[in-house]
Amino acid sequence: MDLIQSLVIAVLQGATELFPVSSLGHAVVLPALLHWGINQHSPEFLPFLVMLHLGTATALLGYFWQDWWMIITGVLGIGGAHQVRESRRVFMLVVIATIPAVVLGFLLEKFFRGLFGSPAVAAAFLIVNGFLLMFGERLRGEARGQRVLSTLTRMDAFTIGCWQCTALIPGISRSGATIVGGLLRGINHEGSAHFSFLIATPIILGATVLEVPKLMHAQVPAGVLSLSLIAAVVAGITALLSTIFLMRYFRQHDSWALNPFAYYCVAAGVVSLGVLFLL
User: Fold this and answer.
1) Helix (H, G, I), strand (E, B) or coil at 263
2) Which of 70, 147, 149, 217 has a 20 to 30 A CA-CA distance from 116?
């Protein structure tokens, strides 16, 4: 993998991890379309993958630092009684929303990736992801839900966490699924996106930590670590800019925010399938 390929994948990871268009789906489909021949399961790719996740997680921590500071100080009992109580409530919601994906991912991630990891299937599920976003927007429009994030309950968090499990399938967006889960519970787009990005941090960091033991025993070729560090910085900057844009976008377009991403996923999936089968 050369510098240009690593930078493209870094930008792709930083953007698609947060945009509701499936980072895993794009990571599977794009190299196949460009005939790059990158083996994402090779030991050489492992440090690159770890650093990409670390860069993305750092960007999310940086953007939502006030949320995480409130959660950490509240859990430690620092601050007024109301602040501590609210902080611990938010912490519990994050934990509840994270548990389903952690459990299912631990048990079935290899199965899902092995079964659905081909470019053609990932492209097909990009189309499914598009219809999922349309489905969420349509039902949300009918329900006219306008709840804000502060009204989130434990059942809301658990439901959103269950929706997050669908992202184990390449082509289904983690952020898209969790935002749809929030919309179907009556939370507005901004609140759903906020909670989606908040629970992304432990998921991404957890995935990174799980890869570290493998990285310690891997034979890393010379130059890979420096290339991975550059890619991590690029992915982090891209993720930060994506988060800034998306939070403003969801705030300003609450009535139809997911529709453009839905149309893109369907179009990208159809075009990708056509190219993969015709060329």
Assistant:
1) helix
2) 217
Which candidate, 131, 127, 169, 172, places its Cα nearest to that of 270? Answer: 127
Taking the chain (279 residues) in consecutive chunks of 10 residues, what is each chunk's mean pLDDT?
A: 86 93 88 79 72 91 94 91 90 95 81 71 94 89 66 94 90 94 91 94 83 68 80 95 96 91 96 88
Amino acid at 104: L
Angstrom distance (rounded) from CA 201 to CA 190: 17
- Give Cβ neighbours of residue 96 (< 8 Å, ≥ 6 apart): 154, 157, 158, 161
Which of 188, 172, 202, 194 lies closest to 243 in space, CA to CA? 194
User: Measured on CA atoms in the order 102, 200, 57, 92, is the torsion positive or negative?
Assistant: negative
Please name every residue paired with 187 in a beta bridge, in sequence order, or none if there are none.
Answer: 147
Task: Say what the pLDDT of residue 162 is.
Answer: 95
What are the domain boundaries of the chain? Answer: 3-37+44-278
CA dist., res. 190 & res. 178, Å (int): 12
Q: For the whole model, what pTM was predicted?
A: 0.91
Q: How many CA atoms lie within 13 A of 64 on its CB side?
A: 22
Residue 54, classified by CB atoms within 10 Å of its CB into exposed (0-12), middle (13-18) or buried (19+), is buried
Distances (CA, A) of 28 to 38, 119, 219, 222: 10, 5, 24, 25
> Residue 274 in 3-state DSSP?
helix
Type of residue at 146: Q
- For residue 12, the tally of other CB atoms under 10 A from its CB is 18
Helix (H, G, I), strand (E, B) or coil at 20: coil
**Contact present, 200 and 18 (Cβ < 8 Å):** yes
CA nearest 279: which of 1, 5, 8, 32? 32
